[in-house]
Request: fold
Amino acid sequence: MSQMPQQAAVSKCPSCEEPLEPGDRFCGACGYDLSVVPARPEDSPTLAIHGVVPAPDDVAWPVARDSDGHGHPAPVHAAAELPGTDSGGSPLPPPPPAAPASAPAAPAAPAGAPAPGVRFDRPGEPEEYPLQAPDPRLTAEPAPVPGQAPAPERAAASRQPAPAAPDAAEKVCVACRAGRVDDDGYCENCGHAQPRERDHMEQESGPIAAVSDRGLRHHRNEDAFSVGCTALPDGAPASVAIVCDGVSSATRPDDASLAASRAAGETLLGALPRGTHPQQAMHDAILAASRAVNALADEPATAREQAPHQNAPACTLVGAVVTAGLLVVGWVGDSRVYWVPADRTAPPARLTEDDSWAAQMVAAGLMNEAEAYADERAHAITGWLGADAYELEPHTASFKPDRPGVVVVCTDGLWNYAESAEEMAEAVPLDAAARPLHGARVLVGHALDGGGHDNVTVALLPFPAPSQGAGSA
Reply:
């Protein structure tokens, strides 16, 4: 209920300092309303300075301990020498009785073990800690007060079952090693983004191998590859490698490269056993890849209305087929094939010509190769796979090397750092024919060491020693 203000017992006016008479309700000099002056507290509270509060005079301090014998005062009293009180002023409960002398002493806690009543939300002795350990100050729980019921939320949490561990078939977070990974690629426990499956890919198929890496500057890998082995009708082995590079300025370049590489690889592996000439099979494979990329542009009308300025998915393609004594290459775009002989005293060669602005300038005699590729327009491609491409002209060529060697099929993410045939031959390990996967890894590392400005993909196909002389098929 409401109460009237009490008259203040003050000797001077708080406003003008004029002396007052007992019982005055207003100042006779300035008219100040004395009823609004708060009543003086009965006690004199002590203000803490730097967290230290002077002790009241009525505390029964115990007698100080004697000097240490050298004229120095004894240490300050220990906290246990004074009886304590709780926040309400009541004495604290007495300490528990000491354990009997016959009872065995509790084992000492190991170094680094948490104090009783403190729980740390991380497994004991894990094999690998997360990228950032949790702050103990945020995860520790205070010790319960004796005789006090636990907080409702803590009691409810104690009744809830612990979260189940992820199943063996589910993906586990690479950061916290505990949370499940959702369909968007993020950990449900710590929210850490997981590496994409295509960020780094490696594959071996018989004597050939391929490696693809996102690189150091791109947020995703827009390259794709397909490698495989089959047999010709006469039983002779045949190796196939397809490498595709998504056009970054196009829509969904990663989908385009994946669709093209799969379609071309399946077409080659299906046509060669039927007796189709490898060069014709390569031509047909490029057409199949083109149809697969074109199909990606067949989107609903509503999707085109929401993004009318997006262009069609697009990519480049380069491939190679190695059979007994015959090497067939095919391409559209600026990815390349290099020939590196096992005998490094023999000259290497580049077997493809780029569909690019720089290549056109060189072919027209307007610039030499060094000037053309130094121009900022050098990598503007003039041929690609996609619904908005110009008239498709698949390039194919056949070669009959006269000695064993290694065929390098790669995107510009590699040959930007080893452009000439001599530079590429120098980067290829000497044992690449015997260890193609190792050689592909070395070449990807060469590009990453050079800066890794683009996605990097390379496939290595060993070419066996032929039984016939060199020539062109």
